[in-house]
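Hey,

The postdoc asked me to send both predictions to you directly instead of through the lab channel. I've kept everything plain text so nothing gets mangled by the mail client. Protein one:
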Amino acid sequence: MRSYQKQQFSRYSAPVVQPDNNILAKNFAYFTPWLFVFTLIWIAGYAYIFPDPIGLAASHWPLIIVGLLGAFIGNTTAIGGGIVFIPVLMFAYKVDPVSALKLAFVTQAVGMTSGASGWLRRGEVPLQLLKWTVPALIIGTMISTFLIHPQPMLVKGLFGPIAFLTGLLTLITLDRKGGRMELPVNAHIPIVLVSFIGGMITGWVAIGEGEIIAAFCMLAYGLNANRAIGLGVVLLSLNSLLLALVHALYFGGVPWDMAVFTMLGVLWGGRLGPFLAQWISPRTTKKVFAFIALLDGFMITLQASYVMFFR
């Protein structure tokens, strides 16, 4: 009887181990030749494409810092840089919500991919889960992109609550270390559903997929925090690449004069998350990021409510 129960447990459960990041995580260097190569390509392309590169840089250079910060947040918590890009563009640069959303997609495509490469190099992404999560993510994204197309009030109305939710999830999972290195077999169907919902949400507000997946894996199944975040970053990277291609090549309307600066920032900021995670505890950093997400959620919700009920 005990032998049978042991076989059943091993079939439906993932092993519980205490991870040692110094052993499991591969040494990850921040600087790579590719960073400098892509930066040189950016400089050449920027000087060639824009007629007044100096004047444009004089007015938009702060967006490089915005991109750096957004990528750092996105790749440390899997929330996504949109938590920074969309509010900054809407409030500081007076960009309409849909254009801000499009900029977030193309910027995250660079920043999250840069960060995802770091998590993959560290060996902290449960790759076997991609076959369950990626198809559901794509289906959810296509529904929110083509069937229920993002509109200004939809973006503003959803961004606030989703940002607030991601902030709460970050605080809830703050002290969750997790002992599992893999998810059990019976988690596959639930994670497909969560990935589908996350794909829909990201198609509307540019954030959601990464943090929702990461929080679900940690809270529901005790997955190791770094592996959960690594999975979330990779999924949001794939989601952002898909949405960037759709909006850049099919819908259009990307504010490239701004996106070019945020893309340079995220190119360098994307690798900061996995790089710094090798030595420092992310607890304090996550608390700051959660506060930013909660503040963003409150401000956007307040503005959307004012527009909806008093105008």
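Protein two:
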Amino acid sequence: MAKSKKFDLENPTPVVDDEDEETLAAIDEGMRDAEAGRTVPAEEVRRLLPELHAYQNALVRKGLEEMRRGRVVSHERVVKRLRPEAF
């Protein structure tokens, strides 16, 4: 069996330059989020994901029902709500 190496967390191995800038930025953002406590354990994600999925499905169904009744919002109005400075 191969001998395992100890990780030195105080002196990490430099990152190899085979990742693009966008990937490295996403990794850095994830590290900052973790350090700031803005992460959720995997077990919690597994518990919450079905609830989120059901909530989103209900919103889509409600929107489809509204659309069938002829209650729609114009594209311009949506853009204005999302980006008030656009108009």
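Summary for protein two, as requested: The helical segments are 21-35, 42-68, 75-82.

Thanks,
C.
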